Amino acid sequence: MKLSPTLKGICFLLLFAAALHYATDNSRSTVDAPKSDANGHETNTLAEKIWSDTIETSNPHQSELTYHVYRPALQADARPWTLVLLGGFNADGRRFMKAPYTRFASEHGYIIVAPSFKSSHQNFRDRVSYQFPQAWSGRALHAILDRLAASEPIDRDHIMVFGFSAGAQFAHRFALLYPSSCVASASHAAGGYTAPETFTQTQFLVTVGSKDSESRKKWARIFTDAADALGISVQHEIINGAGHNLTPSQIRMSFDFFTKARGRR
Predict the structure, then answer these.
(1) Does the pTM of the predicted model rise above 0.90?
(2) In angstroms, rounded to a whole number, what is the distance separating the alpha carbons of residues 97 and 246?
């Protein structure tokens, strides 16, 4: 039977729509699809994944903030805690998307969130740089966590935050600003601290190298003494032989500290 041009056109559109529907459904099924074991039984796990994204911020110096995420292989019903990692001044968060950080997250059940905060020295002098989370960076981090919580099995009510140098300034101030969700903070070689004014259940690790600047050693002691006076759990360590750098021993110390802090909750 010979089809009219109109009928041919309708048939073509129907076939095209069916093919498009199949392709769309098939692509969706491959994203975080349940794994199967050797016997073909569904294991209901999510695969390990690393990705980056951006959010808009209220800071004119960094209106678009890039952040990096590591999700270890997980059971689909797991709710891993949040591990926030920050390096030195204007550091790229991608540096944390590898061992030993990803290994620790995988072994102990964390999703890593590593923002690539940027700032200027003028921002710092005006106290609106990312080292001061009350200015804008604290809200930016919460916006990232809100976005992740919409699609990932993340426990954003249990946060561990780790920082070196400028990142350490953010880490302890963020913990003081959001004590209800921040379980523990590890701050290494911060160039300045904000002393706590009231008691908090958040636990703190403060380290500085024996060869770092006298001002950094002084600030670490000021914070520790203020926390001690309020009955806050704080661990103060001088890293023998270290200058203004992050050493493997400080990283291991942080992982041990987080593990113990989690055990106390």
Answers:
(1) no
(2) 16
For the segment 128-165, what is each residue's pLDDT rounded down to a tens digit?
889 999 999 999 999 999 999 999 999 999 999 999 99
The β-bridge partners of 52 are 68
Is residue 91 helix, strand or coil?
A: coil
The CA–CA distances, whole Å, from 83 to 25, 39, 199, 217, 262 equal 34, 35, 23, 26, 12
- Beta-strand ranges (E) seen in the chain are 45-46, 49-56, 64-71, 74-75, 81-86, 110-115, 155-164, 182-188, 203-209, 234-239
Structure tokens at 258: 């987080």
Residues 205/257, Cβ–Cβ less than 8 Å = yes
Is 234 strand, coil or helix? Answer: strand
Q: What is the distance between the alpha carbons of residues 170 and 167, in angstroms, rounded to a whole number? A: 5
